[in-house]
Amino acid sequence: MLATSSRTLLLSATRAGGRNAIRALVARGISSPAIGSIDIRSNSTETKKIFPTSHFQKSHQVAYKSAVPIIDDDIRGGYNSSSVIQGADACAKAGIANLGINGPSTIYKNQTFEELFQHEVANNEGKVAHAEYGDTFTVDTGKFTGRSPKDKWIVKNIGSESDANIDWGSVNQPTKPEVFDELYEKAVNHFNTLDKAYVFDGFCGANPNSQRKIRFVHEMAWQQHFVTNMFIRANDESDLDGFEPDFTVINACSQVDEDWERHGLNSEVAVVFNVEKKCAVIFGTWYGGENKKGIFSLMNYWLPMQGQFPMHCSANVGKAGDSALFFGLSGTGKTTLSADKKRALIGDDEHGWDEDGVFNFEGGCYAKTINLSEKTEPDIYRAIKKDAMLENVALKGDDLVPDYFDTSKTENGRVSYPIFHIDNYHEPQMAGHPKNIIFLSCDAFGVLPPIAKLTPEQAMYHFISGYTAKVAGTERGITEPTATFSACFGAAFLTLHPTRYAELLKDKLEKHNAQAWIVNSGWSGGPYGVGERMSIKNTRACINYILDGKIEDTTWEKDKVFGWEIPASIPDVDSKVLRPRNTWPDAAQYDEAEKKLANMYVKNFEKYRTGDVDYSQFGPKL
What we know:
The chain is of the alpha/beta class. It is 28% helix and 23% strand. It contains 19 helices and 31 strands. The strands form 7 sheets. It has a 9-stranded mixed beta sheet with strand order 1-2-7-8-9-11-10-5-6, sandwiched between helices. Strands 12, 13, 14, 15, 16, 22, 23, 24 and 27 form a 9-stranded mixed beta sheet that branches. Helix 1 packs antiparallel against helix 2. Mean pLDDT is 86; it is low at 1-71 and 472-477.
């Protein structure tokens, strides 16, 4: 017999229809005569077999899954460390007075999803879009619809640890401490003119052994919503007892740096990090991703200093605890291919690999919405509901329905959502050491095979290379395939020299006997415009063959130019497709294209021919 609270929930839900009743029951894990007993905690039994109990002692994420998308107030309410602090000493009680911020008399700290939604609407910060799976708040970030990499700076504190280790250059642009101090004062002065502010205290990194405490100070509710989606949330106030941030971000996005020329910056936009002062300031850009990727860059600094490996990749895990990593740049299929109904998603973008295994940095996902449909990306499509947030997505009609095919604003429309919006996600956000490392490339030249096996040394070469290709239409001015090399599949976020990360990967591969692979999700039978895009069916068949371990039973053929090994056969994949030269109408044209791409690899790698090991010897041979 149902308990009183369960009967009340059932009666309430059935008033809205039977499907909602089932959703509500599944979300609560209620046993009823109608549907039986439902265990909805994601892979809880298998997970606890994989990890010792100690890994669960500091879990900041509690979430559930069901066979259908659900909207459950209990899950949302499960993250409740919310407080409203008022009075002359509000800033002191919120922990920001030590920053110099004393002006606001009301601080909204760690607001719940529902409270943030109410603030967003009341503040008129955007619109409520009527997405198919639930109303979703949507914002327009103005002229900046993506990161502004030329406006990201790191303070060069002469003689400091960061000064000695950071790979200074076009990615990590140095600025002076005096510039940061001026901008910091400007940001503090701005917040001291406000009556209210939003503060979020949360975590980056699911493994407590390397987790960082992060504090954000915002002037708008929607930016607080973004970091609430993307970072690891506290379950309740006890998780924040004695909270002292390892890093603080003061986001004064409504302000600009009028003195940017005097400061030696590139524009009135400024995203400036001071590693030693454990603080960053943001000016002039409203793009939510600046909050997320700034902390990722810091994790790429902090973790290697402890011998741990930060990674720009997605990750999933099988029922046997066999985790896998998917490295890849935009458009390679990183999100799509790591979403697998037979495997649980750990995360879609940022991870670490330490002595315990792999772990997610984040508490949510930040997905592109261009041309999104339920057929092509069901997990992402269904995740767009209450508590998700859309950025720069066109809305159509009086009902404000999202139009993911309208890219008139930008091709970089985005949605952020808490990870529990994905049904098949891995609750602990940690898993054991991966056995397979997959480098995804969308090769628009039609040269790379759909799958190739790498030696550990070749893995270093291709990890440092980080190759994919842009095709016509992806960026303004692109009219033919263009090779793109992004070191470690995330050059824009690397604070140290790429070879530092490559050495960490090498150590992990050797210690844990992991196998690296190249998987081409790009073109076959010719270059873009001549050949055809590799079918998702073939790519998935290759991935599945890797992950189920059966690929080791096949025979191999060595490629004469790139040196990797190609399997003789894979079930459900035409053996002709496995050897790209055989798919081209003219083999001589393929040979010419292969030589051209190999030359691009070699030329790109010239700048990395340093250190104890010259990995260029493990690249293509001309």
